[in-house]
Amino acid sequence: MNEVYEFLKSAGTYYLATVEGDQPRVRPFGTVDIFEGKLYIQTGKSKDVSKQIQANPKAEICAFKDGVWLRVAGQLIRDDRKEAKSHMLSNYPELQAMYSADDDNTEVLYIKGAKATFSSFTAPPRTVTF
């Protein structure tokens, strides 16, 4: 999991794919955190992406860096605890102008049943689970 975290963090931007009905939806993200041994991302509950995740928690993340791409598939599980939100926001102080651990909008989600696959054109795929 730490290797996945480090890859996503150093890539800066990753893309989160969700499903809305039968239509895939993909958008850029940049928040990633490890809290209590789980990999977390962050969004706002008022956003369509949050509604899509609550309707169908299966999601996939994709990032590319230095000729290697990473896909992480799993389920995104909401964690409404203040401690989880605070931990994320402490690592992304620029978000504190828009989000608060005490508001009803901040949403942090951890990846459950993650299957992460590192791929490139020069090496066979390598998969890690957590």
Provide structural commentary.
The protein has 130 residues and is α+β, with helices and mostly antiparallel strands. The chain has a single domain (2-129), classed as Electron Transport, Fmn-binding Protein, Chain A (Pnp Oxidase, Chain A, Roll), CATH 2.30.110. It has three helices and eight strands, in the order H-E-E-E-E-H-E-E-H-E-E. It has helices spanning 2-11, 48-55, 82-91, and strands at 14-20, 23-29, 33-35, 38-44, 58-65, 68-79, 106-120, 126-129. Strands 1, 2, 3, 4, 5, 6, 7 and 8 form an eight-stranded antiparallel β-sheet that branches. The model has no long low-confidence stretch (mean pLDDT 98).
Could you give a quick summary of the protein structure above?
The chain is α+β, with helices and mostly antiparallel strands and 130 residues long.
Integer count of domains: 1
CATH superfamily: Electron Transport, Fmn-binding Protein, Chain A
Spans of at least 5 consecutive residues with low confidence: none
Question: Which bin fits the share of residues in helices?
Answer: 10-25%
- CATH fold topology: Pnp Oxidase, Chain A
Principal-axes geometry comes out as globular
H and E string: HEEEEHEEHEE
Largest sheet: 8 strands, antiparallel
Rg result: 14 Å
